[in-house]
Amino acid sequence: MKFPTSVCLSLMGVVVPALRSSAFVAPCHRRIATVYGVGGSRAPQSAPCRNLRRRRGSVVDLNMIFGDLFRGLMNDGGAFAAGIDYSALDHPGPELASAAEAKNVLAKSERDPTLELATFAGGCFWGLELAYQRIPGVVHTATGYTQGREKFPNYSQVGAGATGHTEAVVVYYDSSQITYGQLLDAFFGRVDPTTVNGQGNDFGGQYRTGVYFHTAEQEALARARFKDEQLLYSKPIATELRAAMSFWPAEKYHQQYLEKRGQNADKGAIETIRCYG
Asked: Which residues of the chain register pLDDT less than 50?
């Protein structure tokens, strides 16, 4: 993991200010961050560290500092290192996890090949999932993490910016009832595609927006739609348009989050989606 010599890194919601070598001395503190776990629970995490001396006329090796920090967090357990039990998820979670572990990107459901897949990232995945749950022809949805480097990412790691993933929603849809173009309608009707790395009150690389195509047909339709959308804005479109990568399902807690908290997920529902319960 490489970092620039001047950084502003967000660790589990705790911002580490930019550091420069000319005046940087790091005391050795074992307690380094507060990790926000599932449900907002707070779990203080610690990691081994070393005394770092000032280097006259040279740059402090921030790669070493933050590399040690992340390795310590990953090895010490807690929310940051907690694994996800994919077998405990409802369908399509286990299917998606198995495909990700095999480095496969599904175009159709393995359990029901009549259903096609589409992936979208629109900021916080809770609200975007509910929007797709309401659409006739959408049979299954799942929240998760995609377009990142690491295997088996969890919410704390993704939120810390440690894996490069974005929060996303996979949609399993019946193309005899709804088209990919209509799924794009729902996406662009919900996001501001000119916002860089965020939507609404949520900002960070994990909230960047994206349309991630699973087939050549989806790619062609999406590229044409992006051109049309750009005509509507004076600022450039910031939404990513890329081939879908491995999709790692999120924790069970995050699946159908808003529906479980009382918001209407019926097909055709039009009530305003409240993104935080």
From this structure: 1-68, 70-76
The model carries a pTM of 0.74
Dist. CA 147–CA 165, nearest whole Å = 5
pLDDT value of residue 139: 98
Instruction: Tell me the sheet residues that pair with 198.
Output: 203
DSSP states of 143-209: EEEES-SSSS--HHHHHTTSS--EEEEEEEEETTT--HHHHHHHHHTT--TT-SSEETTEESGGG-E
Contact (CB, 8 A) for 251 and 143: no
Distances (CA, A) of 204 to 13, 64, 208, 256: 10, 23, 7, 22
Cis peptide before 48 (omega within 30 of 0): no
Which strand (E) or helix (H) includes residue 228?
helix 216-230
Catalytic amino acids? 124
Residue the block writes with tokens 């590399």: 67
Write the single-letter amino acid at 93.
G
